[in-house]
C-alpha cells in the first residue's frame, strides 16, 4: 500500500526477470493517473505506455505482468493504492527508469482530480534514475525472452 500527496510521481519501477513481479492494484481512496510501460527488450511494444485514471469513484484496477514498468502520479492528497503482488518485494532486484524521461514521452496530467493545476514532484530515487535509453545500454532492462512463452503477449 502507498499513500501520496497530489502531484507526487512514482516510478517507472520494474523488477529483474526471472522471477519478476506481477501486480494487481487499485485506488481505494483519492485518485491517481496510473501508467504501464513495456520495458521488455524484444517486445513489439517496447517503450510504449498506456495511462488510465484509478480512483475511489469508478474503482477500476490494473494488472501488470512481469517485465512491465509501473508509474503513477497522485491526483489528490492522500491517494491510496493497494497492491497484490505475485512475489515478495526484493529491493536488490527492483529498478527504476526516470518517469520524466522525454524518450518515454509520458503525457503526465497537468491538473488534479478537481481541475486545479498540478505541480509534479519526483522523489530523489526516481528523479535520478536512468533514462530508458541509458537503462537499455547498461543491460538493466528485462528481456521478453526471459518469460515463459505463454506470458510473452
Sum up the structure in keywords.
single chain, 153 residues, Jelly Rolls, 2 helices
Task: List the topology elements.
Layout: E1 2-4, E2 8-15, E3 23-29, E4 31-38, E5 49-55, E6 61-64, E7 68-74, E8 79-85, E9 94-96, E10 121-122, H1 124-127, H2 132-137
Parallel strand pairs: 2-10
Antiparallel strand pairs: 1-8, 2-7, 2-9, 3-6, 3-8, 4-5, 4-7
Q: Could you characterize the architecture of this molecule?
A:
With 153 residues, the chain is mostly beta strands. It has a single domain (2-141, 144-148), classed as Jelly Rolls (Sandwich), CATH 2.60.120.10. The chain has helices at 124-127, 132-137; strands at residues 2-4, 8-15, 23-29, 31-38, 49-55, 61-64, 68-74, 79-85, 94-96, 121-122. 7% of the residues lie in helices and 37% in strands. The model has no long low-confidence stretch (mean pLDDT 95).
